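Ticket #310: bound-state structure for adenosine-5'-diphosphate.
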Amino acid sequence: MAALEVCGITKRFGSLVAVDQASFAVEAGRITGFIGPNGAGKTTTMRIAATLDLPDEGDVLLDGVSVLDDPRGARRKLGFMPDAYGAYPSTTLWEYLDFYARAYDLHGALRRRRVEEVLEFTSLSALREKEMAVLSKGLKQRLCLAKTLLHDPSVLILDEPAAGLDPRARVELRELVRALAGMRKAILVSSHILTELAEMCDGIAVIEAGRIKATGSVHDVTRGIQTAVPVFVRVLEDADRLERALLELPGVERARREGQGLVFEHQGSPESLAGVLAALVAAGLRPVEFTPRAMGLEEVFLSLTEGKLQ
Ligand SMILES: Nc1ncnc2c1ncn2[C@@H]1O[C@H](COP(=O)(O)OP(=O)(O)O)[C@@H](O)[C@H]1O
Ligand SMILES: [Mg+2]
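RESOLUTION: The complex was predicted; output attached.
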């Protein structure tokens, strides 16, 4: 059983179907990127999983606990970091965390220990007596993450945590999220910017216009896409000759000049691609480079979504 299971949820706002029968799961110790353009339904899905809104259909299970049947039980399993949260300028970091620790029913020595632990984990211990007003965006984000960890939840839902962070703060956030996955937490992280998630995630769920378009490891999602793979090739001979030879071969769709060589689009099996290389050699050309380009997350995303806005 996955730690986070989104089971066929649908959410309507009037005539708008914000989330349309969305299903996916996140296992303990895994980080799943929830990717989709603005308005795709990420926040709505996350808010339902966090018991802050009710679905019209479907359910979400947190460690097997239904958000509909037992929302209080589900909340104990869950740490939710919303995309926008209140800041209390004249509150110290300690006071802020202590307040939320009380809200989670933590008492006495245990409460002090938990506040110290989450400050330590997010490297904020030295700032405990500072007021929130002095914090940079990156530090506020870390404080908010610290808050979501107070009750040691097994599932973390982070809505656009990297938005607006500078590169260093993003790297620090990524390291923290990775460390949390190492503690066997199931983590769902949303973004509309793929490069924010690319190095952080074990898997992705792509959403567009309320529908889940693909789920799985980046590798599986990429493999499932039937699009041509760009291949860079350079030969010792003339590029015009190369282009003429290439365009006659099966599986080769287009070719364009790039630097000293050509990039052609190949559609077909690895065997067919090997056949292209063999045919070039048989035609008297001498390839010195022949490099299929792996599809990055950006390409996966673009080929799965059509840029539909709601
Ligand atoms: N409370 C609401 N009332 C009406 N429409 C809403 C509400 N919340 C979200 N929506 C709409 O639902 C769609 C999905 O929004 P959201 O889940 O915030 O997308 P995302 O987080 O992927 O950008 C959008 O079209 C948005 O305008
Ligand atoms: Mg959102």
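RESOLUTION NOTES: The CA atoms of residues 34 and 190 lie 4 Å apart.
TICKET STATUS: resolved
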